[in-house]
Amino acid sequence: MWDWNYALDILPQLLKALPMTIGATVLGFALACLLGLPLAVIRYAGGPIGSYMVAAWVEFIRSTPLLVQLFVLFYVLPLYGIAVSPFATGVIGLGIHYSTYISEVFRGGIEAVPKGQWEAARALNLGARRTWTGIILPQAVPPMAPVLGNYLITMFKETPMLSAITVVELLQTAKSLGSVSFRYVEAFTLVGCLFFALSYASSLLVRGVELHFMKKTK
């Protein structure tokens, strides 16, 4: 039976874990974007060797589970003297994993820029840096906003995996509360509601960014 008193009693404890979930997602997404863009640029314009190496890396990361990658970062790398906190490991794991997906989004956006824009840049004798930052990326990024937003929402729902490397996020907190009281329904239901609220708020934010870009292009 649902117990409202118990649900209201544990809600503050769940809310205390909310910043951990939000922080891991936002920082992981930012890292994924920072890593994904150069991967896309190298794959598109890095020559045969660079393109092949990036393609192999992307396929390797996308073809292995995120959970396995988190285990390697947290349990294997310290054996070789590379150790960071569980939270930082989770952010790095999320960032590396999703950078491969986001790189494909960036690559698709770059390839969608008309060839005439490249030709115009060459005709104006613009350098590579000016061409990318002033012409190509400003046209490639706006159409990618909805897809990038989808990955942000997905990353929110992937954060419970961080509990496997001892990060005390929402789901891990709910498990701990349930193990003490043997009442899991209220804890897991509240976690589901909180994840829904985060995802819905993210979708509204993404929609706002999309509308902003649409207004700028008109």
Short characterization:
With 218 residues, this protein is mostly helical. It has helices spanning 4-45, 47-62, 66-76, 86-112, 115-123, 128-140, 145-158, 170-181, 184-217.
Structural class: mainly alpha
Our measurement of the CA-to-CA distance between the termini, rounded to an integer number of angstroms, reads: 55 Å
Strand fraction equals under 5%
Q: Helical stretch count? A: 9
Tally the beta strands. Answer: 0
Summed up, the domain count is 1
| Helix-strand pattern | HHHHHHHHH
What report would you give on this structure?
There is one protein chain. The protein has 9 helices and no strands. The model has no long low-confidence stretch (mean pLDDT 87). The chain has helices at 4-45, 47-62, 66-76, 86-112, 115-123, 128-140, 145-158, 170-181, 184-217. It starts with a helix and ends with a helix. The protein is 82% helix and 0% strand. The chain has a single domain (4-217), classed as MetI-like fold (Orthogonal Bundle), CATH 1.10.3720. One of its GO terms (biological process) is amino acid transport.
Outline the fold blueprint.
Blueprint: H1 4-45, H2 47-62, H3 66-76, H4 86-112, H5 115-123, H6 128-140, H7 145-158, H8 170-181, H9 184-217
